[in-house]
Design brief:
The chain is an alpha/beta fold and about 290 residues long. It has two domains: about 10-75; about 85-290, 3-Layer(aba) Sandwich (Rossmann fold). It is about 35% helix and about 15% strand. It has a seven-stranded mixed sheet, with helices on both faces. The longest helix is centred in the first third of the chain and has 16 residues, at about 60-75. The structure holds S-adenosylmethionine. S-adenosylmethionine binds near residues 128, 129, 130, 131 and 196.
Length: about 290
Amino acid sequence: MSSAAPRPWQLLALLDETSRFFAAKKIDNPRLQAELLLADVLALKRLDLYLRFDQLLSAAQVDAYREHVRQRLRGVPLQYITGKAGFRNLTLAVDQAALIPRPETEILVEAALEHLRGCEAPQVLDLGCGSGAIALALAQECPAARVKATDISPPALALARRNARQQGLEERVAFCCGDLLAPLQPAGQFHLIACNPPYVCRGDLDGLEPQVRDYEPRLALDGGEDGLDFHRRLVEQAAPFLAPRGMRGRGVGVGQADEVAGLLQQRGAFAPARIRPDLAGIPRVVSALRSGGR
Ligand SMILES: C[S@@+](CC[C@H](N)C(=O)[O-])C[C@H]1O[C@@H](n2cnc3c(N)ncnc32)[C@H](O)[C@@H]1O
């Protein structure tokens, strides 16, 4: 006698069960994560799920969803499971080659756009571009800008190039591989240098939350002993690449803003730095205009 076929899952029931399961396993925002994973499997926008609560899912859809859920329970970040992340107006492809773009980095883009307003044909540099988030957002939101983006990681650059193609921005963004400014000539050409460097103190790396520590590239996180290695090198090297009154803006880790502003001050080639907070009031972006000196 053949056993009865399993009852098909209804979309809402599957979401309810998964959210309860995620909550029991202490996954943050359990309902949201359950929805985003299911929306990905069904190739829908998350909110469209709400119009289909009664829909019955096929066995293949349920299997694909369960695989997503299993990965999330293993600690894989949601964006690496779905292969995409939102950043400003863009949906970017992401994988373990590059850091998942963070919401606080959007503040750096905001500060950059403010500076570029009124520049006729600005030349822009994104150092350590990762997935290309900053470079591509600036190219998209400032159509007059010509953007260069560098990274030391060839797999990250491959991902950034793919994102540029997918966004139709490949003509406006040039990529090159190398250590910080090494691939470029110091010709005072950039109206803006944006950088979200690795800034985690080396001693803190092992204590990061597992989904960051175990899945995001160390190269994108490790900022040296005190987390400021890249900031020091950039302060030392960036001025000759900046046009007069050109701005350098950087993302900083929690508690680093004053130190980074101090480094810029000591360098002597920059006007006093401006510090911008995120929505929680945590200083996240330090920017300064080139004033003179070498
Ligand atoms: C914190 S991630 C930022 C990625 C991206 N800009 C973002 O905000 O999502 C830092 C990036 O710097 C790159 N990087 C690390 N060391 C570098 C170096 N010496 N020269 C250039 N890029 C470097 C890493 O590969 C990584 O992509």
